[in-house]
Amino acid sequence: MLDEKRTVKASKFLSLVLRHQPEAVGLTLDEGGWVDVDVLLAACAARGRPLTRAELDHVVATNNKRRFAYSEGGRRIRASQGHTVQVDLGLAPAVPPDVLFHGTASATLPLILRDGLLPMARQDVHLSADRETAVRVGARHGRPVVLAVDAAGLAAAGQVFRVSANGVWLTGPVPPEWLRVRQD
């Protein structure tokens, strides 16, 4: 079984190939972002990054952000969200809670307050249902700042929200008038 360091390394590599650069190991994701597990494992091994099915199962089961999901039956795998390659996760529109949260670094706050939340290289803006997750996300790149998003107001105005398998809320750009900085 993988130790903690190898688990993190494998998770980061899987994020790379299942979210951003499947071609790095010669993979082609289907339109929903899925790839056959056996094809993934063979591609990883062929590129000098061998991983057994048991190790892959361990990474999927222990990833604290639940970044990866197996299909029913476990024959295929995909990233739950965060793609920079074009995929259709097939997520149905969902009614969001009244308020969702976005964590960012304090250095990016002036741009966000001017331009709103943008997907940047990703397909969607990522939001969390709880402030604590937003703090953790924001802390990855500096001093965290949490923005509260008026999700109920946006939804009433026609904005579509979807929720991924791991509980991340996905939506399009969020204009600055729907944001407020959380000071608590």
UniProtKB/TrEMBL annotation:
Keyword Disulfide bond: no
Gene Ontology terms for molecular function: NAD+ poly-ADP-ribosyltransferase activity; tRNA 2'-phosphotransferase activity
Record's keyword terms, sorted: NAD, Transferase
SUPFAM superfamilies, A to Z: ADP-ribosylation
Enzyme category, top tier: transferase
GO BP term, pick one: tRNA splicing, via endonucleolytic cleavage and ligation
Transmembrane segments: none
EC number: 2.7.1.-
Alphabetical list of InterPro entries matching this protein: Ptrans_KptA/Tpt1, RNA_2'-PTrans_C, RNA_2'-PTrans_KptA, RNA_2'-PTrans_N
Key word NAD present: yes
The protein's role, per its UniProt record: Removes the 2'-phosphate from RNA via an intermediate in which the phosphate is ADP-ribosylated by NAD followed by a presumed transesterification to release the RNA and generate ADP-ribose 1''-2''-cyclic phosphate (APPR>P). May function as an ADP-ribosylase.
Family named by the database record: Belongs to the KptA/TPT1 family.
Protein name: Probable RNA 2'-phosphotransferase
Protein's organism: Actinacidiphila cocklensis
Taxonomic lineage of the native organism: Bacteria, Bacillati, Actinomycetota, Actinomycetes, Kitasatosporales
